[in-house]
Amino acid sequence: MDRFQAMQAFAHVVEQAGFGKASLVMGVATPTISRQVQQLETHLGVALLNRTTRQLSLTPDGLHYYDHCKRILVDVELAEKTLPGTTQTHRGKLRVDISHALASQLILPAINQFIELYPQIQLTIGLDDRVVDLIHDNIDCAIRTGVPQDSQILIARRVASFEWITCATPEYLQKYGTPRQLTDLAAHQAVGYFHPQSGKNIDWVFISNGESVNIRMNNTISVNETLAYVTCGLKSLGLIRVASYLVQEHLRAGRLVSVLDQLSEPSVPVSAVYPIGNRSSITVRAFTDWVGELFAKRAHEEECLQSVQVRRTATR
């Protein structure tokens, strides 16, 4: 048994969620992949995978081994790529997943700059408000808002954060009054936002006297897409509670007015998330570095984002 090849086969089976897809990625016959994993299990004396007719899953030993196995494979790849006699070029395909709002408001308006910097990177951007499975969908990197879930196989690099703003049109406030405190919200209408996956409306969360307070609003309409949510707010359909970067221009122009400014609200992180196997990818590093620098520039120009110091990774 070639232990290194068996480790590669095992890692690909985990990441592709099956022997068939792993064989396509590696260019090796499925029976060969299966035999390599079985030989690895025999060598280790433990079962790494739970096999059923419908799906594969990691055993506790398999999860532990995968974590260490992947780190070894990544370190070997990184060692080969950083040999003094080698050169690296930012080239190849890069698949990125971004929410509609982040893409349209912050990233796509400046994406020509990235393409000019790295003309040999073939960039594909998927726009999706749901949390996609990066490994199953073969996505190299995602830009996500919110606190990333702990994962043994994903890395999250924080690139910025933003604040929530509660606001409404002047016309709405003239008709219904301006809420001054949380108890006033019971008399107000709001635009609801329901979770794309669960279908449930998301409560509003405020920090009052150091404690988190959940408010369930009376919704005149509910949507599951961020830009549509802002549009409903601009049509005076109710109060909206939204990321600061989405409404900064509307606030400056007077189309929206912020309320409840005295209440502190938890900031929301923006992170670049990618599989641990892409840790040494220079194309992923190039994109995440660029996004971090882009957000830092926007944070300097406006108050809609708080930047995170960018530490650019040196590449040859």
UniProtKB/TrEMBL annotation:
<dbReference type="InterPro" id="IPR036390">
    <property type="entry name" value="WH_DNA-bd_sf"/>
</dbReference>
<dbReference type="GO" id="GO:0043565">
    <property type="term" value="F:sequence-specific DNA binding"/>
</dbReference>
<dbReference type="InterPro" id="IPR000847">
    <property type="entry name" value="LysR_HTH_N"/>
</dbReference>
<dbReference type="Pfam" id="PF00126">
    <property type="entry name" value="HTH_1"/>
</dbReference>
<dbReference type="InterPro" id="IPR058163">
    <property type="entry name" value="LysR-type_TF_proteobact-type"/>
</dbReference>
<protein>
    <recommendedName>
        <fullName>HTH lysR-type domain-containing protein</fullName>
    </recommendedName>
</protein>
<dbReference type="InterPro" id="IPR005119">
    <property type="entry name" value="LysR_subst-bd"/>
</dbReference>
<feature type="domain" description="HTH lysR-type">
    <location>
        <begin position="1"/>
        <end position="59"/>
    </location>
</feature>
<dbReference type="GO" id="GO:0006351">
    <property type="term" value="P:DNA-templated transcription"/>
</dbReference>
<keyword id="KW-0805">Transcription regulation</keyword>
<comment type="similarity">
    <text>Belongs to the LysR transcriptional regulatory family.</text>
</comment>
<dbReference type="GO" id="GO:0003700">
    <property type="term" value="F:DNA-binding transcription factor activity"/>
</dbReference>
<keyword id="KW-0238">DNA-binding</keyword>
<dbReference type="InterPro" id="IPR036388">
    <property type="entry name" value="WH-like_DNA-bd_sf"/>
</dbReference>
<dbReference type="Pfam" id="PF03466">
    <property type="entry name" value="LysR_substrate"/>
</dbReference>
<keyword id="KW-0804">Transcription</keyword>
